[in-house]
Amino acid sequence: MKKTMKNDSCLTVSRRAAIIRQDAEENYGTLLTLGESMRRAYQVEELIDRMRWDNADFCLQRTDGTCLSITGTLTEYEHYFGRPYYENPSNRFLPYYDVHCRKWLTCRVAGIVFGSSVKKKLISWIK
Asked: What DSSP element (H or E) covers 98?
């Protein structure tokens, strides 16, 4: 049973990685390596898991290059939409409830920025 779930998880992440890689090239003009797109796909999975139970802080890069710091959640998804949130790895967009704006928004999965690049982009955006 565990082996099947693990294989399903790997398949989900690899599908999401392919979508991230394609979307990043089309909309952001960046060519990601396979390793980088897989790393981002795993991080998106972790972000979704955190957002299901609590607020999560993350950064988004817009197509014009600016970055936004966001606090989002998926805890009230079922209350608002009448069904639980099911993630589809082939979906290019991620819905989230913006805690500060107090409304539901979507973002491109390829635009979510992680790691040290977040600090660099936010510092350049603040300057």
From this structure: strand 93-98
Q: What confidence tens digit (pLDDT) does each residue in 43-66 have?
A: 999 999 999 999 999 999 888 888
Q: How far apart are CA 105 and CA 86, in angstroms?
A: 16
Distance, CA of 75 to CA of 97 (rounded, Å): 8
On whether the CB atoms of residues 72 and 56 are closer than 8 A, the answer is: yes
- The DSSP code for 25 is I
**pTM score:** 0.78
Contact 68, 57 (CB under 8 A): no
CA distance 108 to 99: 18
CA pair distance 51, 112, nearest whole angstrom: 14
The amino acid at 110: A
Helices (H), strands (E): how many in the chain? Answer: 4, 5
Residue 65 to residue 16: CA distance in whole angstroms = 22
Q: If you search the block for the tokens 């710091």, which residue do you land on?
A: 69
Amino acid of residue 54: D
